[in-house]
Protein backbone atom coordinates (compact mmCIF):
# COMPACT_ATOMS: atom_id res chain seq x y z
CA UNK A 1 0.00 0.00 0.00
CA UNK A 2 1.47 3.35 -1.10
CA UNK A 3 2.31 5.84 1.62
CA UNK A 4 0.40 9.09 1.27
CA UNK A 5 2.72 12.02 0.70
CA UNK A 6 2.49 15.18 2.74
CA UNK A 7 1.85 18.50 1.00
CA UNK A 8 5.51 19.43 1.45
CA UNK A 9 6.64 16.13 -0.08
CA UNK A 10 4.29 16.59 -3.03
CA UNK A 11 5.59 20.12 -3.58
CA UNK A 12 9.20 18.94 -3.47
CA UNK A 13 8.42 16.19 -5.98
CA UNK A 14 6.61 18.67 -8.22
CA UNK A 15 9.62 21.00 -8.22
CA UNK A 16 11.96 18.10 -9.02
CA UNK A 17 9.85 16.82 -11.91
CA UNK A 18 9.23 20.27 -13.41
CA UNK A 19 12.90 21.25 -13.33
CA UNK A 20 14.46 17.88 -14.21
CA UNK A 21 14.65 18.59 -17.92
CA UNK A 22 16.00 22.10 -17.40
CA UNK A 23 18.92 21.04 -15.20
CA UNK A 24 19.70 18.14 -17.53
CA UNK A 25 19.67 20.42 -20.58
CA UNK A 26 21.20 23.65 -19.26
CA UNK A 27 23.35 22.19 -16.52
CA UNK A 28 23.71 23.38 -12.94
CA UNK A 29 25.55 26.59 -13.77
CA UNK A 30 23.27 27.44 -16.67
CA UNK A 31 20.03 26.96 -14.74
CA UNK A 32 18.84 30.14 -13.04
CA UNK A 33 16.32 30.76 -10.30
CA UNK A 34 14.14 32.40 -12.96
CA UNK A 35 14.18 29.08 -14.86
CA UNK A 36 12.95 27.29 -11.75
CA UNK A 37 10.16 29.75 -10.96
CA UNK A 38 9.04 29.81 -14.59
CA UNK A 39 8.99 26.02 -14.90
CA UNK A 40 7.10 25.47 -11.66
CA UNK A 41 4.96 28.60 -11.47
CA UNK A 42 6.13 28.92 -7.87
CA UNK A 43 7.77 31.87 -6.17
CA UNK A 44 11.38 31.97 -5.04
CA UNK A 45 10.13 31.67 -1.47
CA UNK A 46 8.15 28.53 -2.28
CA UNK A 47 11.13 26.86 -3.93
CA UNK A 48 13.58 27.78 -1.19
CA UNK A 49 10.99 26.89 1.41
CA UNK A 50 11.31 23.30 0.17
CA UNK A 51 14.99 23.25 -0.78
CA UNK A 52 17.87 24.97 0.95
CA UNK A 53 19.37 26.23 -2.31
CA UNK A 54 19.69 25.57 -6.05
CA UNK A 55 22.35 22.92 -5.44
CA UNK A 56 19.97 20.88 -3.30
CA UNK A 57 17.39 20.99 -6.11
CA UNK A 58 20.05 19.91 -8.63
CA UNK A 59 21.11 16.97 -6.46
CA UNK A 60 17.51 15.80 -6.06
CA UNK A 61 16.95 16.23 -9.81
CA UNK A 62 20.00 14.08 -10.60
CA UNK A 63 18.62 11.29 -8.40
CA UNK A 64 15.24 11.61 -10.13
CA UNK A 65 16.71 11.50 -13.64
CA UNK A 66 18.95 8.56 -12.72
CA UNK A 67 15.94 6.69 -11.32
CA UNK A 68 14.20 7.09 -14.68
CA UNK A 69 17.17 5.49 -16.44
CA UNK A 70 17.19 2.62 -13.96
CA UNK A 71 13.46 2.15 -14.48
CA UNK A 72 13.90 2.01 -18.27
CA UNK A 73 16.77 -0.48 -17.91
CA UNK A 74 14.74 -2.65 -15.54
CA UNK A 75 11.76 -2.71 -17.90
CA UNK A 76 13.98 -4.18 -20.59
CA UNK A 77 15.89 -6.45 -18.20
CA UNK A 78 12.79 -8.39 -17.21
CA UNK A 79 12.36 -9.37 -20.86
CA UNK A 80 15.99 -10.45 -21.33
CA UNK A 81 16.56 -14.18 -21.03
CA UNK A 82 20.32 -14.60 -21.38
CA UNK A 83 23.12 -12.61 -19.78
CA UNK A 84 24.24 -11.36 -23.19
CA UNK A 85 20.73 -10.01 -23.78
CA UNK A 86 20.93 -8.27 -20.40
CA UNK A 87 24.17 -6.57 -21.42
CA UNK A 88 22.58 -5.43 -24.68
CA UNK A 89 19.82 -3.71 -22.70
CA UNK A 90 22.23 -0.88 -21.87
CA UNK A 91 22.96 -0.29 -25.56
CA UNK A 92 19.23 -0.25 -26.30
CA UNK A 93 18.30 2.18 -23.50
CA UNK A 94 21.24 4.55 -23.90
CA UNK A 95 20.87 4.40 -27.67
CA UNK A 96 17.64 6.39 -27.32
CA UNK A 97 19.40 9.43 -25.85
CA UNK A 98 20.18 10.88 -29.27
CA UNK A 99 17.19 10.12 -31.50
CA UNK A 100 14.33 9.70 -29.05
CA UNK A 101 15.47 10.75 -25.58
CA UNK A 102 13.03 10.00 -22.78
CA UNK A 103 14.97 12.52 -20.69
CA UNK A 104 15.32 16.05 -22.11
CA UNK A 105 19.01 16.82 -22.47
CA UNK A 106 20.17 13.22 -22.75
CA UNK A 107 22.23 11.20 -20.29
CA UNK A 108 22.37 12.89 -16.85
CA UNK A 109 25.46 10.90 -15.84
CA UNK A 110 27.45 12.21 -18.80
CA UNK A 111 26.08 15.74 -18.48
CA UNK A 112 26.79 15.96 -14.77
CA UNK A 113 30.22 14.34 -14.99
CA UNK A 114 31.37 16.82 -17.64
CA UNK A 115 29.97 19.94 -15.99
CA UNK A 116 30.75 19.15 -12.36
CA UNK A 117 34.27 17.86 -12.98
CA UNK A 118 36.03 20.23 -10.57
CA UNK A 119 33.38 22.84 -9.92
CA UNK A 120 30.84 20.99 -7.78
CA UNK A 121 32.06 18.08 -5.68
CA UNK A 122 28.61 16.98 -4.55
CA UNK A 123 27.33 16.63 -8.11
CA UNK A 124 30.63 15.07 -9.17
CA UNK A 125 30.25 12.49 -6.38
CA UNK A 126 26.70 11.71 -7.55
CA UNK A 127 27.95 11.06 -11.09
CA UNK A 128 30.87 8.97 -9.83
CA UNK A 129 28.59 6.84 -7.64
CA UNK A 130 26.22 6.30 -10.59
CA UNK A 131 29.09 5.09 -12.79
CA UNK A 132 30.40 2.76 -10.08
CA UNK A 133 26.92 1.29 -9.58
CA UNK A 134 26.58 0.85 -13.35
CA UNK A 135 29.98 -0.86 -13.47
CA UNK A 136 28.96 -3.23 -10.67
CA UNK A 137 25.69 -4.12 -12.42
CA UNK A 138 27.47 -5.00 -15.66
CA UNK A 139 30.27 -6.82 -13.81
CA UNK A 140 27.71 -8.93 -11.94
CA UNK A 141 25.97 -9.86 -15.20
CA UNK A 142 29.27 -10.92 -16.77
CA UNK A 143 30.24 -12.94 -13.69
CA UNK A 144 26.85 -14.67 -13.81
CA UNK A 145 27.43 -15.44 -17.50
CA UNK A 146 30.85 -16.94 -16.76
CA UNK A 147 29.35 -19.05 -13.99
CA UNK A 148 26.65 -20.46 -16.28
CA UNK A 149 29.09 -21.09 -19.12
CA UNK A 150 27.62 -18.43 -21.39
CA UNK A 151 30.76 -16.26 -21.28
CA UNK A 152 34.41 -17.28 -21.57
CA UNK A 153 36.23 -17.99 -18.31
CA UNK A 154 39.11 -15.81 -19.52
CA UNK A 155 36.93 -12.69 -19.59
CA UNK A 156 37.86 -9.95 -17.12
CA UNK A 157 34.44 -8.73 -15.89
CA UNK A 158 35.49 -5.33 -14.57
CA UNK A 159 37.55 -4.42 -17.63
CA UNK A 160 34.72 -5.45 -19.95
CA UNK A 161 32.21 -3.48 -17.86
CA UNK A 162 34.32 -0.32 -17.99
CA UNK A 163 34.81 -0.75 -21.74
CA UNK A 164 31.06 -1.03 -22.33
CA UNK A 165 30.37 2.07 -20.23
CA UNK A 166 33.15 4.05 -21.94
CA UNK A 167 31.89 3.11 -25.40
CA UNK A 168 28.29 4.03 -24.60
CA UNK A 169 29.00 7.34 -22.88
CA UNK A 170 31.71 8.24 -25.40
CA UNK A 171 29.32 7.43 -28.23
CA UNK A 172 26.63 9.70 -26.80
CA UNK A 173 29.14 12.52 -26.37
CA UNK A 174 30.50 12.21 -29.92
CA UNK A 175 27.03 12.00 -31.45
CA UNK A 176 25.87 15.10 -29.56
CA UNK A 177 28.95 17.21 -30.25
CA UNK A 178 29.00 16.36 -33.96
CA UNK A 179 25.22 16.32 -34.25
CA UNK A 180 25.55 12.95 -35.95
CA UNK A 181 23.37 10.17 -34.44
CA UNK A 182 24.92 7.56 -36.75
CA UNK A 183 28.16 7.90 -34.79
CA UNK A 184 26.40 6.47 -31.75
CA UNK A 185 24.90 3.69 -33.88
CA UNK A 186 28.38 2.66 -35.03
CA UNK A 187 29.79 2.72 -31.51
CA UNK A 188 26.87 0.70 -30.15
CA UNK A 189 27.63 -1.88 -32.85
CA UNK A 190 31.08 -2.11 -31.27
CA UNK A 191 29.41 -2.76 -27.91
CA UNK A 192 27.44 -5.59 -29.51
CA UNK A 193 30.66 -6.97 -31.01
CA UNK A 194 32.40 -6.84 -27.63
CA UNK A 195 29.54 -8.82 -26.09
CA UNK A 196 29.71 -11.37 -28.91
CA UNK A 197 33.44 -11.78 -28.38
CA UNK A 198 33.09 -12.75 -24.72
CA UNK A 199 30.46 -15.41 -25.46
CA UNK A 200 31.32 -19.11 -25.57
CA UNK A 201 30.88 -20.47 -29.09
CA UNK A 202 28.08 -22.98 -29.31
TrEMBL record:
Record's protein name: TetR/AcrR family transcriptional regulator
KW Signal (keyword) present: no
InterPro entries with a match to the protein in the record: Homeodomain-like_sf, HTH_TetR, Tet_transcr_reg_TetR-rel_C_sf, TetR_C
Top-level taxon: Bacteria
A Pfam family: TetR_C_13
All copies of domain HTH tetR-type, residue ranges: 9-69
Organism of derivation: Spirosoma aureum
Residue ranges of the annotated DNA-binding region, renumbered to this chain: 32-51
PROSITE patterns: HTH_TETR_2
One GO molecular-function entry: DNA binding
Keywords: DNA-binding, Transcription, Transcription regulation
Amino acid sequence: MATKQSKAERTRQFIIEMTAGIFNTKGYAGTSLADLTEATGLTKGSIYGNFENKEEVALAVFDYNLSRIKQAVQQHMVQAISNSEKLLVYAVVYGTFIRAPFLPGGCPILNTAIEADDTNNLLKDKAAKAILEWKKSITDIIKAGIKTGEFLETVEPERSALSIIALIEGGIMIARVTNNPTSLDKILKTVELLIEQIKVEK
